[in-house]
Amino acid sequence: MAKAKPEPTPPTPPAPAPIPAPSSGANGRLKAAVDKALQGGGEARVQAQKTRGKFTARERINYLLDEGTFLETDLLVNSRATEFGLKGKHIPGDGVITGFGRINGRDVCVYSQDFTVLGGSLGIAHARKICKIMDLAHDNRVPVIGLLDSGGARIQEGVDSLDGYAEIFHRNVKSSGVIPQISVILGPCAGGAVYSPALTDFVFMVEGVIHMFVTGPDVVKAATGEEVTFDALGGCEAHAGKSGVCHFVAKSEPDCFRQVRELLSFLPQGRHERAPRVANPDPVRRATPLLEKMCELDPRKSYRMHHIIWQIADEHKFFEVHAGFARNIVVGFMRMGGDVVGVVANNPGHMAGALDIDASDKAARFIRMLNAFNIPIVSLVDVPGYWPGVQQEHGGIIRHGAKLLHAYAEATVPKISVILRKAYGGAYIAMSSKHLKSDFNFALPCAEIAVMGPAGAIEILFSREIAAAPTPEAKAQLRAKLAKDYADKFASPYQTASTGSLDEVVEPSHIRFKIVRALRFLKDKRRPGDSPNRGNIPL
């Protein structure tokens, strides 16, 4: 079985802030207990961790948080593992470090599993420490970040360790949609342990020796006869591109922590706040000439939606979420006029931007997260319809597509939609149409909005006339004329605007200003205290 190559040893992080020693009058037992707890699993295991290119649990916390802000809780918790087959063995902090600190000056709670201590396995004391810090985060409305590096449930503690996981899962659900929850996979994550990350809002993985699965390759082979490597079954590529479990992939632990810090800059502390606003050096009235060029493209030609997003975003910056999964739809964060907005956009550069099962799930969950945390939604629409096929129908495209409809319809945050080139059929409705209660719906002059595309529509409406044309050249000319007439009469954005389903047909170079102006008008549409208490259920 092929083994993943270890990463090069990462740069050494800044040394953790030392814990002050007890005063001269303090009981010497305290200092001894603190020193023992800070040792982790011992020098040999720490070196083994570093040989694999991984930081220690304390180094990770120090790298992630603002310097000198971490305050540890439950440092001296005693492990119950000594009662279950490990008598006489000291378990420092029971293999997990918990506490709170700051990222970019804002409070967060964090826990970091220590693989050097019994492989970071979860026992009852370990679970209680995690539950305690999660309760602290929930009650004080601050984000919670889990740094996961664990061999799973501790066998020596039997069902108590499984009960510990259940307690954590319960708190994941309790905090869902209330505070941001972030999971960072930095080592093995298998069995029941995988469900806590799946219940959180965002999952990060680091390339290399990271694996995440319910059952490992040996169990898969024994049960089904399939042979699969660790990477193919549960590596970053599998979960970022196929299963959709992973939202972000990092090349190294420092890169991962940088991404976590950047993500938090777009998120509020919880559902009771708005996302942080920043000073905007980018002119609100900046023109967007690239959109004029896009209008000149052949409607059948593809392009990457990212270029449109970069064009309208403040300073051309876009923080994409789920970049490797369901690439026919793009989701992520940007700022417009200094305010955070969430972007949901069809991507004609992949599968023509059509909606399918994975795209519907990806967009629906992101929209629900935005709605939970008071972040406005900007939808950029260029969709030819739903992706056809037996696999899609049998896989439940009706059921999965309904999730997207439900997510847009229930969202009460500001919703702005821009139809760029085409919006056909049910997919037009699903992408934040006016009658799903979008606040402002704009379209470019080149947009086509109809039950189906002109080329398909004329084959149904004028099949006899086309069949009667005497030559192939005559048929082609007739098709071109009929398609243009149909587009002008039935698919024109002006026709749609005349019914009130569009608020305005906008010059391409003015679209950035129109969106920012609409966002500012809608800033008090829903106050954070009025936000619905709905969980961000995994879809």
End-to-end separation in angstroms reads 33 Å
Tell me the β content.
15-25%
**What level of helicity do the residues show?**
25-40%
- What characterizes the major β-sheet? 8 strands, mixed
Q: Helix count, per DSSP?
A: 21
SS-based class: alpha/beta
Indicate the radius of gyration in whole angstroms.
27 Å
Global shape:
elongated
Low-confidence stretches: 1-5
Describe, in short, the structure shown:
This protein has 539 residues and is an alpha/beta fold. The chain has helices at residues 28-38, 43-51, 57-64, 124-140, 159-175, 195-199, 217-224, 230-234, 236-243, 253-264, 289-295, 305-312, 357-372, 390-395, 397-410, 425-430, 454-461, 463-468, 472-490, 493-498, 511-521, and strands at 71-73, 96-103, 106-113, 144-148, 181-185, 188-190, 202-206, 211-213, 248-250, 319-321, 329-336, 339-346, 377-383, 415-424, 440-443, 448-450, 504-505.
